Amino acid sequence: MTAPVRRTGGRSAAVLSAIRYAVEELVRERGAEKVTIPLVAERAGVNPTSVYRRWGDAAALLNDIATYHLDPDRPLPDSGDLRADLIAWAGGIVEHYRKPLNAALLRGGTPMAGERETDCLRNRRAEALQIVEHAGSTAPGGPVTADEIIDQLIAPIVYRAIFLPWTLDDDDLAVRLVDRLLPA
To answer: Residues 128, 121: contact at Cβ < 8 Å?
Structure first.
């Protein structure tokens, strides 16, 4: 007897796509603070239990959707130059959160902050680790860890996206943050 083949895509992909689209529409129309799982389920045409089963609450759903477009399978910078790769990577994250919808989704997901490790944190840490492994962790001040990158590069970007979104328009932000992380 052979094990059933698991479908990639199909109904599950269609449901996830409908839910993501519904969340984005509702945030645009009402604001993140007014998005509820029953509203999302109704807009997406799915049963609310399907949404609760995957995300648990609206904050977790918003947090996941906020990072959805930061596809973990996207190619990461891999020039072999740690500084250049971190600037390119951070610049992409800044660009993502410059979009008002993405920043609003992130703000809507903040009630769950500190409750558990989010996909956003888990994915950014994995990306930071991959960049460090490819480019090497040696910097003028010594080795750099993924957690230092999260603390000194990603955290200021996320803070700005949540509390100071207008400051993400600074074109030199990624460079300045990397310069602080990797002083010459």
So the answer is: no
3-state secondary structure of 142: strand
For domain 10-56, say whether CATH 3.40.630.10 is its number.
no
| Cβ-proximal residues to 36 (8 Å cutoff; 6+ apart), any chain | 58
CA distance 94 to 29: 24
Q: With contact defined as beta carbons under 8 Å apart, do 59 and 108 qualify?
A: yes
Using alpha carbons only, how large is the chain's radius of gyration in Å? 18
From-to residues of CATH 1.10.10.60 in the chain:
10-56
Q: Residue 48: which pLDDT band, with cuts at 50, 70 and 90?
A: very high
Q: What is the pTM of this model?
A: 0.76
* Gap between the Cα atoms of 33 and 29, Å rounded: 11
What does the alpha-carbon distance between residue 10 and residue 29 come to, in Å, rounded to a whole number?
29
